[in-house]
Amino acid sequence: MKIGIIGAGNIGGTLARKLVTAGHSVKLAGSKEPDDIREQAEKVGATAVTSEAAVKDVGVIVLSIPFASIPEVAGLFADVPADVVVIDTSNYYPQFGTRIPEVDEGRPESVWSSEQLGRPIIKTFNAALAKTLSEGGKPAGAADRIAMPVSGDDSVGKAVAQQLVDDAGFDPLDAGDLASSWRHQPGTPAYCTELTMSELKTGLAYADKDLAPGNRDALMAEFAGSDVPPSHEVVIKRNREVSAPR
């Protein structure tokens, strides 16, 4: 499969490596010029390109950029064919400096993203920490394989995204339509808690839309206020404790 990834940070870069390993052809674009990420891209077997080139002649486009930057790339999609699958991996954290009133008022993050881009998107790869994505994958059928939610309105696009989740080493779980994607946004039991398939189904079912933003903000304040950056294990543990169904 030909895939373009916009965003060469922890998530985008890791996805490039994992998808190339799975046999896909990947073009990777960063926030600067291709030369700035050429070594990174070549190391994982991807091709460093501009954002404009990343959306051309591909079957899937993955957006791994800051959530508030989604409107800035909307122009790239003007000539992208309607059958190209667009995957959004981003999450809304107002602590990073940009508040979005519609999302603050309850609009699911990826519904807002879809509106900015003017096309359907699939929400996945958002509910895992970078280390989980990098090191937590296992072969299909392995015991305690971590599951990942996949939300979207297009069944074909969702099937493609589920295949990529599986290729990356995780069990894909159909989490419903895009309007339901709030169930794996920050502050919910499904978000960055490394759950198995059965556990993830329970986590999605017990998500509380009203409590999630408060959980998100409390966790961010706790992590930011720590004298020592919390370890991956601590972050997972606290996410589970704070967002656990009440």
Note the beta-strand portion. Answer: 5-15%
Segments where pLDDT lies below 50 for 5+ residues? none
CATH superfamily: NAD(P)-binding Rossmann-like Domain
How many domains? The number is 1
Q: Would you count the extended β strands for me?
A: 8
Structural class of the helices, strands and pairings? Answer: alpha/beta
In CATH, the topology is named Rossmann fold
User: Alpha-carbon distance between the termini?
Assistant: 42 Å
The CATH first-level class comes to Alpha Beta
Strand order of the largest sheet: 3-2-1-4-5-6-7-8
Instruction: Provide the gyration radius in Å.
Output: 17 Å
Major sheet: size, sense and barrel closure?
8 strands, mixed
Give the second-level CATH assignment, the architecture: 3-Layer(aba) Sandwich
Structure annotation, total helices:
10
Task: Give the ordered list of helices and strands.
Answer: EHEHEHEEHHEHEHEHHH
What would you call the shape?
globular
Mean of pLDDT = 96
- Helical content stands at 25-40%
